């Protein structure tokens, strides 16, 4: 469908939510910058474009004949390319020489020009300057996806496209936070999210977590006991949370816990940013290789019901800003995603885009719209997501299989922060079956990452030199350097601390490391685990010898 410049977000709001409450006014949360932001004069003029009989010579729009693109064409994989069970073939885990030929898909083609009044996409329109809310057909698509998957509990929610969750989060930071404000984050949090806010002088307030996610009682304790004077800054008004496939820990927050967290945020007037790019990679508990069986093929309805609900399901006030992205489900280079939030917040986020990114790239919008609206359709996209989940479940299983084969393991029922999970404790094979456990982890239940702990307890303090930092002055940092020497790059825990100045765990006692299983072959995962074992053996041997 050709984009209609005068279309408003309200035009794509569904009518079947009218019996639900409306969003509350949260304008008191806006930053001074956001309050001062006015609509773009240039974008405001675009609402007049397309008016019958209007001669437009005011826009400064490049003429479409000067676009070098005459069409946009691509071969598209079938939506059912991947098996929807983890027992199916995962070509990307195979060595390159063994990868089968890709499935033959449909060829799509988008011309430059389409007839006047046509609903088809045309590059003359989609590659032109436009409103920040994007292609009209794409607006309708993301709204429909939010209704279908997330089911907001209020009637007047808005959806708004953005250029990926990194930029989406940056907009939220500038819209809601003033210099010197504070931000609630998980104990271990996505490092780029933290570093987006730090240049504003924002203070991080880390909330303790367990293997099931952010702890509601800990959140309440922080807010109940808050004292501006003792803390040195005001109580937080914003929570950043990554609830599914949490980066870096890999846990999944249940709907029940989300509801608890939401009610606390209502009580203390906190806005929740739900950053959820791994939502459809809900892999479930790890099952050891010898206990696995072929699971039955799921229907689309069964797949959707198996997903933990979003915070939006419990949001009756419009205080959740959910960010979704096509980066993990289609491709990160598209730089395309969307917000689902209250209309007042959406309007402020749109105003910021008008004078920064303007709108997501026309090529990306065109490709995604042609794929999901005109080729696969939503049923096809759901089938693709089923296959995607199966692919990453198999990848998770392949990595956990590899690491469990490289060490001697004992498995125990978790206690304390690990209650309800199986904890794997590993010792070096060269130390025999009763060797000291040097490494432990809980298999991830979602996403792309496994969070590994290395136990340095009992080692002498690390040897440091003047100027040592987190990367060189702790056992965590020095063991990371040892792995690099062995040829293995994984990410150290200090990068992900919610409060870097107040680490939750002494990095000289326990080191944390994020391992990605998203893009390696099975062989490379096995090799990585061997390098990890080799680095552990040499580091503990040499560190002990120095004592």
Structure notes:
Helix content is 31%, strand content 15%. It is of the alpha+beta class and 547 residues long. It has a domain at 392-545: Alpha-Beta Complex (Aspartate Aminotransferase, domain 1). The strands form five sheets. It has a six-stranded antiparallel β-sheet with strand order 12-13-14-15-17-16. The protein has a five-stranded mixed β-sheet with strand order 3-11-10-9-8, sandwiched between helices. A hairpin with an 8-residue loop joins strand 12 (408-413) and strand 13. Helix 13 packs parallel to helix 15 (522-545) and helix 14 (475-486) crosses helix 15 (522-545). The protein starts with 31 loop residues before the first helix and ends with a helix. The model is unreliable at 1-15 (pLDDT under 50).
Summarize the structure.
This protein has 547 residues and is of the alpha+beta class. It has helices at residues 32-36, 41-45, 123-126, 136-149, 165-176, 191-197, 216-224, 228-231, 255-267, 300-306, 343-354, 362-372, 377-406, 475-486, 522-545; strands at 71-76, 106-111, 158-162, 182-186, 203-207, 209-210, 213-214, 238-241, 271-275, 320-325, 337-341, 408-413, 422-427, 439-441, 449-455, 491-492, 510-516.
The CATH architecture designation of the domain at 392-545 is Alpha-Beta Complex
At CATH level 3, the topology of the domain at 392-545 is: Aspartate Aminotransferase, domain 1
Whole-Å distance between the termini?
72 Å
Shape, principal axes of CA atoms: globular
Number of strands: 17
Q: Which range does the strand content fall in?
A: 5-15%
Query: Kindly state the mean pLDDT as a whole number?
Result: 91
Radius of gyration: 25 Å
Please state how the strands of the largest beta sheet are arranged side by side: 12-13-14-15-17-16
Described by strand count, sense and barrel closure, the largest sheet is:
6 strands, antiparallel
Identify the CATH homologous superfamily of the domain at 392-545: Aspartate Aminotransferase, domain 1
Helical coverage, percent range: 25-40%
The assigned structural class equals alpha+beta
Could you name the ranges where pLDDT drops below 50 across 5 or more consecutive residues?
1-15
Number of helices: 15
- CATH class descriptor of the domain at 392-545: Alpha Beta
Family: Belongs to the class-I pyridoxal-phosphate-dependent aminotransferase family.
Cofactor: pyridoxal 5'-phosphate
InterPro entries: Aminotransferase_I/II_large (IPR004839), Class-I_PLP-dep_aminotransf (IPR050859), PyrdxlP-dep_Trfase (IPR015424), PyrdxlP-dep_Trfase_major (IPR015421)
Keywords: Aminotransferase, Pyridoxal phosphate, Transferase
């Amino acid at each position: 469908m050709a984009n209609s410049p005068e279309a408003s977000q309200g035009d794509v709001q569904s009518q079947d939510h009218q019996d639900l409450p409306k969003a509350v006014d949260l304008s008191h949360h806006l930053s001074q910058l956001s309050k001062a932001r006015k609509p773009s004069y240039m974008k405001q003029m675009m609402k007049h474009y397309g008016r019958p009989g209007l001669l437009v010579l005011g826009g400064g729009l490049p003429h479409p004949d000067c676009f070098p693109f005459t069409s946009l064409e691509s071969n598209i994989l079938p939506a059912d390319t991947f098996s929807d069970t983890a027992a199916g073939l995962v070509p990307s885990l195979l060595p390159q020489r063994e990868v089968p030929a890709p499935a033959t898909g449909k060829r799509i083609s988008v011309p430059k020009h389409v007839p006047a009044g046509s609903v088809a996409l045309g590059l003359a329109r989609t590659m032109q300057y436009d409103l920040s809310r994007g292609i009209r057909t794409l607006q309708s698509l993301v709204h429909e996806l939010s209704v279908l998957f997330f089911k907001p509990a209020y009637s007047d929610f808005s959806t708004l496209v953005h250029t990926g969750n990194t930029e989406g989060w940056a907009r939220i930071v500038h819209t809601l936070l003033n210099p010197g404000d504070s931000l609630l984050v998980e104990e271990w949090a996505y490092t780029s999210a933290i570093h987006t806010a730090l240049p504003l002088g924002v203070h991080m307030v880390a909330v303790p977590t367990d293997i099931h996610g952010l702890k509601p009682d800990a959140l309440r304790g922080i807010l109940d006991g808050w004292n501006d004077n003792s803390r040195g800054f005001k109580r937080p008004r914003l929570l950043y949370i990554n609830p599914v496939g949490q980066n870096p820990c890999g846990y999944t927050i249940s709907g029940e816990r989300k509801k608890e967290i939401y009610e606390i945020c209502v009580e203390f007037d906190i806005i929740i940013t739900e950053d959820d790019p791994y939502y459809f990679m809900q892999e479930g508990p790890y099952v050891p290789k010898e206990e696995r069986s072929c699971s039955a093929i799921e229907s689309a309805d069964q797949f959707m019901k198996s997903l933990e609900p979003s915070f939006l399901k419990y949001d009756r006030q419009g205080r959740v800003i959910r960010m979704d992205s096509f980066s993990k489900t289609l491709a990160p280079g598209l730089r395309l995603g969307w917000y689902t939030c209250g209309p007042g917040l959406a309007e402020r986020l749109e105003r910021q885009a008008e004078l920064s990114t303007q709108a997501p790239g026309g090529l990306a919008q065109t490709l995604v719209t042609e794929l999901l609206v005109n080729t696969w359709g939503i049923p096809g996209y759901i089938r693709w997501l089923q296959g995607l989940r199966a692919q990453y479940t198999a990848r998770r299983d392949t990595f956990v299989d590899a690491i469990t084969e490289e060490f001697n393991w004992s498995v125990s029922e978790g206690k304390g922060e690990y209650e309800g999970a199986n904890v794997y404790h590993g010792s070096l094979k060269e130390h025999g079956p009763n060797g000291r456990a040097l490494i432990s982890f809980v298999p991830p239940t979602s996403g792309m990452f496994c969070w590994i702990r290395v136990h340095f307890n009992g080692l002498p303090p690390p040897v440091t030199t003047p100027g040592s930092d987190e990367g060189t002055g702790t056992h965590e940092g020095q063991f990371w350097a040892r792995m690099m020497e062995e040829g293995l790059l994984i990410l150290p825990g200090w990068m992900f601390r919610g409060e870097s100045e107040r680490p939750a765990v002494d990095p000289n006692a326990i080191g944390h490391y994020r391992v990605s299983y998203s893009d390696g072959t099975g062989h490379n995962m096995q090799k990585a685990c061997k390098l990890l074992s080799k680095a552990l053996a040499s580091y503990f041997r040499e560190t002990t010898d120095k004592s």
